Amino acid sequence: MNPYTCENNYVEVTEDSRIKGRALCTTGDFTAKYHASISNNITVNYRGTTAGYKGFRAVYFIRNNSAVLTEPTGYIASQGYPMDFGYYREYTLLITAKPGQLIRLSPAGSTSFGNAYVHVYDGQYSNMTELKNLTDQCTLKSYTSTSNYMLVKFTLSFFSQGFSGSYKIYGGK
């Protein structure tokens, strides 16, 4: 295990034998860190040696290339994020809320798109109004649906780090 600059406490995420980013070792850092698998085989290595260090919390979700998300809040990422997404892949997420509710999508600001094409549609289908084409952009601006559906479509033509973001359903009763 290679703890990089972490001397005492760290979390390291690997997929097969590849490290999926730098070891997480910042004390008091409550920012969520996300990783998505290509091979469906992620390992979390943890080392905690400092007295009183409370460790970490990990949550996982199982999704395929097309998923319907109904949770009131959630995180989305292209497969393999933040490492390679693969090539010539398509990944579609439909975020669904109750009638009368709206959906807000907030892209992560640190994402590098490269050759990833990310389209956000206001509705259930890709022939609906496109809210935003996030291709080759890195933005913190949020996008809000006008209905209770939002479709996010990732397409990749060559290796790329992909896309990540979060969503929240709000309004209605």
From TrEMBL:
Domain (CUB) ranges: 68-156
Keywords tagged on the record: Disulfide bond, Repeat
Top-level taxon: Eukaryota
Pfam families listed in its UniProt record: CUB (PF00431)
Protein name as catalogued: CUB domain-containing protein
Native source species: Biomphalaria glabrata (Bloodfluke planorb)
Gene: 106073844
